[in-house]
Amino acid sequence: MPYTVERASSADSHEITLLLRASIIELCGLDHGDNPDRYKAWLKNKTAPNVESWIDGPGAAFVVQDQDKRILGFAMGTPKGHIPLMYVLPDARLTGVSKTLMRALEDTFRDRGLDESCLSSTLTAERFYKSLGYAETGETKTQLDMTFRCFKKGL
């Protein structure tokens, strides 16, 4: 599947919102147990206005698009090298979209002179991040009645 990586645009906020919501509901069952009460809380801030503000914020946000300009993935990085969001459409899972997004963020961090990237991972994504060289720090974060393990990677 040919695709391109681009800087996210606030004009894409509605499509990105739909992607985030589908990814959380359909791909993160290991984390929310397919319990609507748990994933509704996770979805609460996944709105087009919030996505637009994230894109327009001080960090870097990227999308991966297919040849028809359909957004297949979305990721964000902060100016200090933290990755708070990285999601793909369910039908784009395991196609290289996630790796492309991570490469774009890590390249941006290197260009900013950072020597480390960090993130908090869902259970669903832990194996993926480990495959990219991220290592557990031993720290955890609890949000929305879920525990997320923290990971770091030297750049």
From TrEMBL:
<protein>
    <submittedName>
        <fullName>Acetyltransferase</fullName>
    </submittedName>
</protein>
<dbReference type="Pfam" id="PF13673">
    <property type="entry name" value="Acetyltransf_10"/>
</dbReference>
<dbReference type="InterPro" id="IPR000182">
    <property type="entry name" value="GNAT_dom"/>
</dbReference>
<dbReference type="InterPro" id="IPR050832">
    <property type="entry name" value="Bact_Acetyltransf"/>
</dbReference>
<feature type="domain" description="N-acetyltransferase">
    <location>
        <begin position="25"/>
        <end position="153"/>
    </location>
</feature>
<dbReference type="GO" id="GO:0016747">
    <property type="term" value="F:acyltransferase activity, transferring groups other than amino-acyl groups"/>
</dbReference>
<dbReference type="InterPro" id="IPR016181">
    <property type="entry name" value="Acyl_CoA_acyltransferase"/>
</dbReference>
<keyword id="KW-0808">Transferase</keyword>
<keyword id="KW-0012">Acyltransferase</keyword>
